[in-house]
Amino acid sequence: MTVTAAAAPTASTAATTAGIPELVLLCALMLAALVVPGLLIGLALTRRPGLSAAASAPATVGVLGFFGWAFGGLGVPVNLMSLTLSWVFVLALALPLGVIATQRRRERERADAERGGEYDPRRPGALGAGHARGGRGAHALRRDVGKRGARHAGGNPGATPWAWAQALLSAGTVAALVVWAGTDVARRIMDAGDRGLRSIPQGWDMHWHASLVHWVHETGVISPTRTGELRYAEDAKEVYYPTGWHVACDYAGEVAYRITGREWDTVEVLNLFMGVSMAVAAAGAAAALVWIGAGFLLRRSGNFPLDLASVATRWAATTLAAASALLLPAWQIIFFDGSWPAGFGIGLAGIAVAVAAAAAVTVDARWAASALAALAVLGAVQTHASAATVVGAGLAFWLIQQLVKPALGATRLGALWHLVLTAVLTAVPFIPQFLVGLGNVDEVTGYDQQLVDDRADSLSQALMMETKFWDMYGDDTVWYALIIAGLVGLAVLAFTGGTWLTALWTLGFGGTVYCLMPFDNWLGTALEMFTAFHYNASHRVVLICAMAVSAGVGALIAALGAALQLWAARARRGGREQIDDAPVADAETDLAVGGVDDMDRTDAGRTDLDRTDADRADGDRTAGDVESARPGGSHAVGRGTVTGAAAQDPETGVMPVVDAAPAVIEPAGRDAGDDAEEAAGRGGWVQAAQAAAVVGAAALVMTTQLPAVASAEDHGLQLMTASADRQGRVISKADLRAFDFLREQVDASPEPFSILSAPEEGMGWGYIIDDLPMVFSHYLNDRQTDPLDTTQLVFHADLINGDPLNPMDEAACRLGVRYIIASPPMFWPNLEPYGSFVNLANAPGLTLVHEERGAEPIDDVFVYEVDSWDPRYCRSVR
């Protein structure tokens, strides 16, 4: 019997709504679920707020992804409770490790204090040549420098009030930008689609990602080595597909929906999390990279330990970098493409590179920081295979820089050793997954694309990030200013210790040029080895450039702040003279290059209450207490302010990867008590002026330039979100009504059965929307040459004749196929429809049970029942 469906609304076509406050709350809760576990684990290990905040998202994904795989092997259901217990378990392991690290740090500090009578780190030559070699003297120097801004707060470099203020302010602003971006995307989807927040993303990859999220929610399985069970219903072929993004999506959705009491819907969760996750990747990577880069710039100004101006500068740099990343079309294009795990993985890889680099040259408890870095790297590589190439390339460039010019206080061997430690800690939990993943390398590397035919076009388009889907943005070019500013910022970083980041941009640029138009020579072969893991897709590789460029935008504001601080420092010191040729400290030179501030920077924001008794005693010394002659110079090192590039960042503990900056030394004989009150007051005003100038400049750029960029991109964003179900490229309202019809048949049948479709028609969405037992939950029939029943049926379903002994009827019975749904045309216009599906109406063994025709072919949908299906013999593979 043929049933023609009415156009009345059904359960699937009904829309759900959410106001802006509720969208903000849902996005904020998802973000919290994504970052809080990693943040707590990082704080437990390192006690450093900035480093922990930077590593929070990839560390969370690392933990959730690993336990998602482990639970799959152990048969433990993956759900909100089990995933929460997993990161709580890791936190419980991290707490004692952090305590051990803290205790060892305090023991070293006490040992130094006990040696106080015979050891004075401010005495020229006290460290000797050991400093240059990173020996005992260098270790003492690093701890002495750290004491200046940190030890008074309990011996923990991450516990200073300024460090917490800087980290919380910057992280909070980036989080606000992420929530805003996620809310904006969700609002646009609601406006563009017919199902409100449940509007279906009408893309290619989105189909498979949604199936994986629904799979973990419904079955409690999300192991990347078991995804074949979902993808290949017939034989559950073992494949490896990274599922870090999907398990994070399910977990974040569970947290948000449980807290708000909203009924779970896979498509709703997908629409919310895809915006939040892409914003985390874009803004988080830029913020983490510029956090390190800004530290280099600020240390060159000598304005460390932290003070008001440094906090303002790093906040402004981080905020502008994150905002620029969110506005660059490259990240929006990857969002529209539906390659969410790839984009998310590359963003997490950028964060992991920054965290691992910082951990390798941190001051104390480097092994604990390396463990946190390993979690961050694990999170990136469990999200997408391409992330591993970004992590490897980024850290390789950084290590090369370290080998050429190691950070002061660190050694070449030490940096290499701690990178190896990070790699080992990452590899141990990841190797079992990696071994399975080796079998799927050809699936990723077998793609080849070319978008332009002129080499000049490939170069210019790669420089301006004009890749796939660029034409959606029309002729608006106002965001070119962001790209140019970022490139200038990268040049600044290249001359101030961030050469490795410029090198990473260069790799991304070269890879994008190659993907736009391949070239056949040794360079093309080398680039192919890298771009192949990105499907040789220019819009994926260019994300590396986008990360670096947005970090460069932040570097410009950091450079401005550093210049202001250096100018202000010179103005405050008045008659003090500058020594520009200060070498690396050794037994024959002043300690000026060590960056020690003997006055504890009371003129930079510290009050007398912040100083320890030892500090006050040091401050009461006279210029004659310490004397040393500088060979070839006329200045004596007296009691006074000595600044330089060697000062560590008291929040991250990172020593700069730069040459020693000019040191400023107070001339011998100057009384430090002269005009002290006036100097302190003037210093406070200068600090406030510096902070105000930096914040004002950042606010000016944000309010004048960024809105113009956002307006220029509005058309592109509308096109992206217009791919919701109102357009119906994959799923139409007629399809939704057919899904509801099939759901009724499933509910009415006492025996399970499965439903066959042409995978490229997208009917696998029935599994996601109505939990239908679809044979194909993937969008692609990629095993057309394998001797499978699924392959035979897709190509010969019209040969089903109702005879249980007919080969096609037997194949349908073995799969448990009771219904076949057809909804032409294919997703891609260049794909010819399966001839068997075109001829289903003439199959003698099929009965049309549901039909709906529309004005356009895209609105046609047909459901056929297999006459030979027998519940006594036919068992569903779903």
Automatic annotation (TrEMBL):
Residues 106-123, 598-628 have a biased composition (Basic and acidic residues). The keyword Transmembrane helix applies. Residues 106-141, 578-640 are annotated as: Disordered. Keywords: Membrane, Transmembrane, Transmembrane helix. This is Uncharacterized protein. It holds the Pfam family DUF6541. The chain crosses the membrane at residues 23-46, 53-74, 80-101, 272-294, 314-335, 342-361, 367-400, 412-431, 477-495, 502-519, 539-568.
